Structure formats: structure tokens, C-alpha cells
């Protein structure tokens, strides 16, 4: 009796772990393969299984043994302006995360906690934008950005300057143009609205009685207790901004302004590109910052509401 | 400290939904007033209106001499303790208590002194560095009370503050609240649906039902002389026994009523304008029904349905043949011999019997 119970439990546990490990492998295998490819001397073993998942280096006699080399990773920095792309990605992603969180929070709070005419209509209108494919906004956004650039130019000219410098801040080839269209996203507003609605009304009332203004309630009470949602929104936004390819590739025409996703694609793929190993090494390098960000933010995913109310 | 005056206060959520239907009340400075009533009767809404958390549709609210209808919650000089504690989960106990003072721009040394003093009063100085999640229910409730105390409010508003505590802790906290009121001598307004809390804590009780004040008075006065059926049945545990009856005799200081099956009972009330034949309700509290010998004149035969031994008392539920209502009797603890199916004789003492007219209003008792 005892033995069969232990055996059953072991089997259940074993199958649970096995399925989790399989799932983890399923989701990470492209990255693991890219890592192995990038660490190998060349692509000779990359298309074999399971050798493709284990880095190999070639000895002088044309044999391949298990081992790793960082030479392709070094080549990435030599062959393409990786640091420039990386800097652009960092600036655009950071601004995207900060801007999206700020706008989502400020839009979601009144939608969730204040009563005003047209509140539901506004929310439904915001949610309705989620139904549109992002490609549908490419042309309007492009026209908007070019127009903004023209206006900046005209304004500068009106103020008596010949230099066309202001266009660079808001028009084509500007960070603003690359990130602005995605800042006020319906998803972030929806996520934060749900998070704010989960905060007990008593907590807000207590702050109100304590003398807090609406802004103080938002910054000093609501934000700290909704950190898990803010962390989730930050991760989503960062991953989206970091991996965004289509819009930046349209808007960032000069190489110095391109982010990693665009730069790596343009420089390392296609018939005239270098080796596939460099591409794989660059892909791994591209992914690392997101993983680091996730490892820092994941501790905020724990509930922020413990102990607030019974 | 301040008095509170409510003049014809009304609250409508929509045009048709009226939850507070014209409340007039005066709460004296330093008084401990308890709002009591069933769930949904509007007592918490009224408290929230006094706190400034709900708009007042009509009427006037004065806190002290100030018309406070449109005053922001933080400017009313009130502090509120919530049923759910409503502690800020990301702040330590100290910061929870200091939050209001920090917002008000109080100098740091004074904040420190006031928080520590409140912590001393509530015996929780050792908890100041903890976060709410590391506290028990009772400790959290203390912090919520401490957060109110540090502000030196003119009025304390307590919205069912003990409802989430277990029975023994609730008793302790009840005693502590009573002591706190004696110590601070601040006006306190307390909302509860627990009539034991109302009876034990209040200087005056305000009984609510359906957005209307049913009666205001001291606990004993309300218990002894309820103004209507609602108050009579709401206050007292177990509830007052009520019987539908007919008035069959009117005397100068008593009324004679007939229950079903020809059982008659007398109540020492002033019948006023009541006439023989009127429908009335006879009310008698469980502790006033007496068990008597067969030989006693007018004794009513009854059968025991259930006996509950509570240690200090015995609750016996008996049934009079032909009368639908089960009657609850509170008997001394030594009545341990009673058991299911026993036949007993009971009487309703005239001086303890209450009478209510067809509208549910009480006849004035004659004592």
C-alpha cells in the first residue's frame, strides 16, 4: 500500500517535471541553437542533431570536437556598428517603457477610479484600437511623422533659423518618431485599468481621509500596490520595443539611428552578409539585455496587496 | 473634539434609488454614538457621507459649527477606521501611522512623537517597523486605530472595525475601544450590525432601517422601551418573542390580548386610543418568560423543542400547541433537567410584556 502510494507520487512528479522540461526546451531551443551556433568554429555541425545544440570547434586536421570559441562574438563588434545599434535600442526601449508606463498609468487611473461623462465610451474606443492590425497604422503614422518634421522645420524657419535641426527631433530619423506611435497603447491602459480596479476602495478612501490628493493617491498608494502589473507592462513593452523591426526600419533611414533588430538584419543577412555564425552570435547578444531586465523585474511579480485588507 | 449635526440628510444614487431618506440627528461633543441596523440599511453610507467619501444629495451636515457638505474629507477633522483595516501594504506600521501627518507637512520630530505616543496607547511600539502582512488581524486593527489616533481628530468614525476579528479578539478590542474613548474623550461614531457591540459601547444608539432612523436613545432605554417592532426585534439576543394577537380588553394601565387557541395574556401598557378587536403584536423577551408550576393560574402549557446549554444560561425553545411561533426562553444555568419533549408551563409576566399596534408602533409601557 505504502509502496504503491510512493510510486504513484514519484510517477506523477516525474511526469510533471518531464513535461515542464520538454516545454522549457521547446521554448528555448531556438536560442540554445543560436548560442551553440555562435560558439562553434563554423556551421558544419549546426544542422545535425544533437550536435547542433552542442558547440564544436575544429582542430587543425578538419575534425570537430566539443568546445567553444568567442571569436564570432568578437567579430560582431568588428563587422557591424553593434555598439551604435545597441545604444539606439537602449534609448528607444527605455523611452518606450517609461513613456508607455507613464501614459498607461495616467490614462488608466481616471478610467478605473473616477466618474465622468463618457468614461465607458472612451474606454471602449481605446479597446477598439486593439482590433486594428498594427500595419494599418503604418501609413498614417508615416504621414504624421513627416508632417511633424515639416512643421518643426517651418517653426524653426519662422523663428529665423536657417539650420534644419529641429526636424531631427520629431521627424523621420528621430527617436521620437520611432517610439511615439506605440506609447499610448490600448493594452497598457487596459492592463493598468484592471490592476487599479483590483485595489480595494477602502485603501483609496483611507488615503483620501488622510489628506492625499488624487495625484498623491496615484503615486503613493496605487503605484506601489500595482507593481506586479507595472513590471508585467514594462517587460511586455521592453520586449516589443527591443524586437520592433517594421516601424523602425521604415522610419530610421540612417545607420546611426537604427536599433539592433534593424541593424543586425540589414548588416548580417542577405546574399552579401558575412558568416551565419556572426549572425547567431549577434542574435544571442541582442537577446541578453532583455533576459537581464527580466531577471531584475521578476521579483516585482509578487503580489503587492498582501496585508492591505482582510 | 466636535459635535455633529445632521439636518434632513438625504442620499440618492439615482433619481429613484434613495438610500438615506432624510436623517435628522445631533451628536454631542465627546459622545460615543453607535449606528446599528441590518445590512443595506444605509448606516455605512451615512458614515461615509459624514466622512466626505460620499456626496450628500440634500440636507446639511455640520461638524462643530462648520457646514461640511462640500468640505474635502481631509479638511473635516475626522479620522476613519475601516472594516477591512485598509492599511497601506507597502508601508511599515510607522509609515502607515505617519502618512497623514507627512501629507499635512507636520515636522518630523512631532510626527515621531505622535506616532510613538499612539503606539504606546495601543501597546504596539514593538510593531512599528513591520509591514502589515507580518501582522495578525488584531494587530492590523490596532494599526488602523493608531493611524486614526495620531491625527488628533475631532471625530472618530469607525466602520464595523471589529467585524473581521475572531470572537475573543473582538471582545478584547471592544473593551479597549471603550477605554480609548474614556481616555481620549473624542466624539466617536461607530457603525455595526452587531447589537452586542452597540449595547456595550454606546452612550447612545441610533437604530437604522431602510435609510430611516427608527429610534435614538441610550442602550438600556432602547432595550426596555423600543419604539417599534423593528427596534424591539433587532435589539436583544436571542430576539424578542413576538406573537400576533387581538386586543380583547382595555384597562387603564393594561391591555388584555388573545393569542390563537384562546390563550390570553396581559401587558402593562397604556392602551391609548386602541380599541377592543384591534390587531396587535405581543412582545416578550426570552429572559422574562417564566417557567411555573401547573397550579399557577393562567399558566400556558408548552412543549420543549430544543434545549441549548450555554454554561451561564440555558436557552429553551418551546412550542405552544396552536401557536405557530417557536418561543425562546432564557433560563438560569441550573435548569439542566429540561429535555426535548418535556411538557412545561409558562407565563408571560404582565410588567414585562410589550404591545405593538398594527403599524408596529409600541404602546407606551406602564411600569
Strands, helices and their partners?
The complex is a heterodimer of chains A (310) and B (367).
Chain A (H helix, E strand, L loop, with lengths): L1 H38 L16 E3 L5 E3 L4 H9 L2 H32 L5 H10 L9 H21 L8 H4 L4 H9 L2 H12 L3 H9 L4 H12 L1 H17 L2 H6 L8 H9 L7 H22 L13
Antiparallel strand pairs in A: 1-2
Chain B lengths: L3 E9 L5 E10 L4 E5 L6 H9 L6 E6 L2 E2 L10 E4 L11 H11 L4 H14 L15 H13 L5 E5 L7 H18 L2 E6 L2 H7 L2 E6 L2 E6 L1 H6 L4 H6 L6 E10 L4 E4 L5 E4 L1 E2 L8 E6 L5 E3 L7 E10 L3 E7 L6 E7 L10 E5 L6 E3 L7 E2 L2
Parallel strand pairs in B: 3-8, 3-9, 6-7, 7-8
Antiparallel strand pairs in B: 1-2, 1-4, 4-5, 9-10, 11-12, 11-15, 12-13, 14-22, 15-21, 16-20, 17-18, 17-20, 18-19
Helix pairs in contact in B: 2-3, 2-4, 3-4
What does this structure look like?
The complex is a heterodimer of chains A (310) and B (367). Chain A has a domain at 84-258: MetI-like fold (Orthogonal Bundle). The longest helix of chain A has 38 residues, at 2-39. In chain A, α1 (2-39) packs across α14 and α3 runs parallel beside α7 (175-183). Chain A has helices at 2-39, 71-79, 82-113, 119-128, 138-158, 167-170, 175-183, 186-197, 201-209, 214-225, 227-243, 246-251, 260-268, 276-297; strands at 56-58, 64-66. A two-stranded antiparallel sheet of chain A has the order 1-2. Chain A is mainly alpha-helical and 310 residues long. Chain A is built from 14 helices and 2 strands, in the order αββααααααααααααα. Helix content of chain B is 23%, strand content 33%. Chain B contains 8 helices and 22 strands. Chain B has a 6-stranded mixed sheet, sandwiched between helices. In chain B, α5 links the parallel β7 and β8. In chain B, α2 crosses α3 and α3 packs across α4. Chains A and B meet through α9 and α10 of A and β6, α2 and α4 of B.
Amino acid at each position: 500500500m505504502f509502496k504503491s502510494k510512493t510510486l504513484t507520487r514519484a510517477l506523477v512528479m516525474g511526469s510533471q517535471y518531464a513535461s515542464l522540461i520538454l516545454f522549457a526546451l521547446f521554448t528555448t531551443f531556438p536560442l540554445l541553437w543560436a548560442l551553440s551556433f555562435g560558439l562553434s568554429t563554423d556551421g558544419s555541425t549546426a544542422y545535425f542533431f544533437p550536435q547542433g545544440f552542442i558547440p564544436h570547434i575544429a582542430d587543425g586536421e578538419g575534425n570537430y570536437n566539443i568546445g567553444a570559441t568567442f571569436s564570432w562574438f568578437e567579430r560582431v563588434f568588428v563587422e557591424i556598428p553593434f555598439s551604435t545599434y545597441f545604444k539606439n535600442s537602449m534609448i528607444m526601449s527605455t523611452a518606450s517603457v517609461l513613456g508607455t508606463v507613464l501614459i498607461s498609468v495616467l490614462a488608466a487611473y481616471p478610467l478605473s477610479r473616477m466618474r465622468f461623462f463618457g468614461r465607458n465610451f472612451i474606454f471602449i474606443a481605446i479597446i477598439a484600437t486593439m482590433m486594428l492590425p498594427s500595419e494599418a497604422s503604418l501609413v498614417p503614422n508615416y504621414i504624421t511623422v513627416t508632417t511633424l518634421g515639416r512643421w518643426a522645420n517651418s517653426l524653426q524657419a519662422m523663428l529665423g533659423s536657417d539650420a534644419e535641426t529641429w526636424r531631427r527631433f520629431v521627424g523621420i530619423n528621430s527617436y521620437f518618431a520611432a517610439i511615439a506611435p506605440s506609447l499610448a497603447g490600448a493594452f497598457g491602459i487596459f492592463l493598468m485599468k484592471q490592476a487599479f480596479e483590483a485595489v480595494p476602495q477602502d485603501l483609496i478612501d483611507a488615503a483620501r481621509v488622510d489628506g492625499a490628493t488624487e495625484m498623491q493617491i496615484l503615486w503613493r498608494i496605487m503605484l506601489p500596490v500595482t507593481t506586479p502589473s507595472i513590471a508585467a507592462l514594462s517587460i511586455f513593452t521592453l520586449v516589443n520595443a527591443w524586437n520592433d523591426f517594421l516601424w523602425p526600419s521604415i522610419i530610421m533611414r540612417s545607420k546611426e539611428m537604427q536599433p539592433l533588430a534593424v541593424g543586425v538584419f540589414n548588416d548580417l543577412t542577405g546574399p552579401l552578409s558575412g558568416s551565419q555564425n556572426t549572425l547567431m552570435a549577434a542574435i544571442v547578444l541582442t537577446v541578453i539585455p532583455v533576459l537581464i531586465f527580466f531577471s531584475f523585474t521578476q521579483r516585482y511579480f509578487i503580489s503587492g496587496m498582501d496585508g492591505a485588507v482582510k | 473634539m466636535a459635535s455633529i449635526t445632521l439636518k434632513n440628510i438625504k442620499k440618492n444614487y439615482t433619481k429613484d434609488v434613495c438610500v438615506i431618506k432624510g436623517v435628522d440627528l445631533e451628536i454631542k461633543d465627546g459622545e460615543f454614538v453607535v449606528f446599528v441596523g441590518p445590512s443595506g440599511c444605509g448606516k455605512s453610507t451615512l458614515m461615509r457621507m459624514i466622512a466626505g467619501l460620499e456626496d450628500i444629495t440634500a440636507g446639511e451636515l455640520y461638524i462643530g459649527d462648520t457646514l461640511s457638505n462640500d468640505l474635502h474629507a481631509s479638511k473635516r477633522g475626522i479620522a476613519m477606521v475601516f472594516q477591512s483595516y485598509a492599511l497601506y501594504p507597502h508601508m511599515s506600521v510607522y509609515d502607515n501611522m505617519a502618512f497623514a501627518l507627512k501629507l499635512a507637512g507636520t515636522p518630523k520630530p512631532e510626527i515621531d512623537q505622535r506616532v510613538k505616543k499612539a503606539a504606546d496607547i495601543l501597546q504596539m511600539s514593538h510593531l512599528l517597523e513591520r509591514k502589515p502582512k507580518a501582522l495578525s488581524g488584531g494587530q492590523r486593527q490596532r494599526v488602523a486605530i493608531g493611524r486614526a489616533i495620531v491625527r488628533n481628530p475631532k471625530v472618530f468614525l469607525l466602520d464595523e472595525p471589529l467585524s473581521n476579528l475572531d470572537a475573543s479578539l473582538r471582545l478584547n478590542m471592544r473593551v479597549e475601544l471603550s477605554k480609548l474613548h474614556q481616555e481620549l474623550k473624542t466624539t466617536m461614531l461607530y457603525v455595526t450590525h452587531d447589537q452586542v457591540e452597540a449595547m456595550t459601547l454606546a452612550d447612545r444608539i441610533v437604530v437604522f432601517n431602510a435609510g430611516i432612523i427608527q429610534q435614538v436613545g441610550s442602550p438600556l432605554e432602547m432595550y426596555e422601551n423600543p419604539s417599534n417592532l423593528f427596534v424591539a426585534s433587532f435589539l436583544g439576543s436571542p430576539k424578542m418573542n413576538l406573537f400576533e394577537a387581538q386586543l380583547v380588553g382595555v384597562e387603564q394601565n393594561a391591555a388584555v390580548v388573545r393569542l390563537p387557541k384562546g390563550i390570553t395574556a396581559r401587558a402593562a401598557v397604556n392602551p391609548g386610543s386602541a380599541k377592543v378587536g384591534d390587531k396587535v403584536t405581543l412582545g416578550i423577551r426570552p429572559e422574562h418568560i417564566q417557567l411555573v408550576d401547573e397550579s399557577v393560574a393562567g399558566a400556558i402549557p408548552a412543549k420543549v423543542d430544543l434545549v441549548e446549554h450555554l454554561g451561564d444560561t440555558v436557552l429553551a425553545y418551546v412550542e405552544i400547541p396552536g401557536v405557530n411561533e417557536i418561543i425562546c426562553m432564557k433560563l438560569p444555568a441550573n435548569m439542566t433537567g429540561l429535555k426535548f419533549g418535556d411538557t412545561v408551563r409558562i407565563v408571560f409576566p404582565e410588567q414585562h410584556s410589550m404591545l405593538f399596534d398594527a403599524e408596529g408602533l409600541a404602546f407606551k409601557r406602564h411600569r
